[in-house]
Amino acid sequence: MDANIIVLGGDGIGPEVTAEAVRVLEAAARRGGHRLRFSERLMGGCSIDRHGTALTDEVLAACKSSDAVLLGAVGGPRWDDPAARVRPEQGLLGLRKGLGVFANLRPIRVHPRLVDASPVKADRVAGVDIVVIRELTGGLYFGQPKGRDRKDGHERAVDTLEYQDFEVRRVVELAFRLAAGRRKKVTSVDKANVLESSRLWRQIATEVGRANPGIALDHMLVDTASMRLVTSPRSLDVVVTENMFGDILTDEASVLAGSMGMLPSASIGESGPGLYEPIHGSAPDIAGKGIANPLGAILSAAMLLRHSLHLEQEARWIEQAVDDAIEAGARTADLGGSLSTRAMADEVLERIG
């Protein structure tokens, strides 16, 4: 297979971890007899500095014409003014919208050797294996009207939470397809006791559930879900929810694995290139020090192989190599070790073969 991959290192530690993910992708591709071509572009704060915008039309066009996009992280203190007209996060939102990726998959699996790294009690996190599916292109982040004005002598801010039926149906149907290959359980998270959009969400989730009688469906309010993630995470299998709820719940769930540096994500649509990125931020406090954990980016690269290039065996080689490195005691600082970013990636590379 020949494939073209756009690499958006972004800001902070993003370029450092994506560089290691590219090395691992190259190794897996060589072993499988494939050819991957990489093209680096700017997105986020670095693009604002160079071009005055977080995502140029040229970069978006290149991403659309690629086979997959590998992203590091965006943002940092120098662009962290909430009132700024141009912000790094606009690039990420524009990229998701432009690529038509409507579902963000975030697997949360706790490695047996890292159980004690989690702040949650070991007896609760041992054996956790969850996939959270977050709807990406609807909800508060994109609803209109949005903005600020003055009403009755007071300043007013408005954000609109809006969903259409097809937006809900396609992401819930994806959740059921993934659950069919796992433990056959879907938990749909909403706020149907308060929000009309959540009532639509629950209605459609129920309809999809009836069409898939072999898979159990639970409806759960988002406040309950936030507690269950900590008190009984092993009871969850596939969790599907709307944009903002998913944004918050997946960051909460990241602590189960012991470090945000461990967790990958995949953003996929019905067709076209997917977007793959670790869930951690740009971590400007450690940028340039060579100590960032590259495993989230490396595991995101494995998801790229699986979901965009359909190279399941190569994806498993990477995931197994990560497991074996952790089993052997390889640790970066966030996991209580002392390995550098490059050295941690080297431990993975040695085990790919």
Number of helices: 12
Let me know the largest β-sheet.
10 strands, mixed
Question: If you compute it from the alpha carbons, what radius of gyration comes out, rounded to the nearest whole angstrom?
Answer: 20 Å
| Terminal CA distance | 19 Å
What's the domain count?
A: 2
Structural class: alpha/beta
Q: Which CATH class of the largest domain?
A: Alpha Beta
Please bin the fraction of helical residues: 40-55%
Kindly identify the CATH topology of the largest domain. Answer: Isopropylmalate Dehydrogenase
Strands, helices and their partners?
Elements: E1 2-10, H1 14-32, E2 35-41, H2 45-51, H3 57-64, E3 68-73, H4 88-99, E4 103-109, H5 122-125, E5 129-135, E6 147-151, E7 154-158, H6 165-180, E8 185-190, H7 196-210, E9 216-221, H8 222-231, E10 238-241, H9 243-253, E11 266-268, E12 274-276, H10 295-307, H11 312-327, H12 341-352
Parallel strand pairs: 1-2, 1-3, 3-12, 5-10, 8-9, 8-10
Antiparallel strand pairs: 4-5, 4-11, 6-7, 11-12
Helix pairs in contact: 1-10, 1-11, 1-12, 6-7, 8-9, 10-11, 11-12
Name the features:
alpha/beta, Isopropylmalate Dehydrogenase, 353 residues, globular
Protein architecture, described:
- The protein is of the alpha/beta class.
- It contains twelve helices and twelve strands.
- A hairpin with a 5-residue loop joins strand 11 and strand 12.
- Helix 1 (about 15-30) packs across helix 10 (about 295-305), helix 1 runs parallel beside helix 12 (about 340-350) and helix 6 (about 165-180) packs across helix 7.
- The model has no long low-confidence stretch (mean pLDDT about 95).
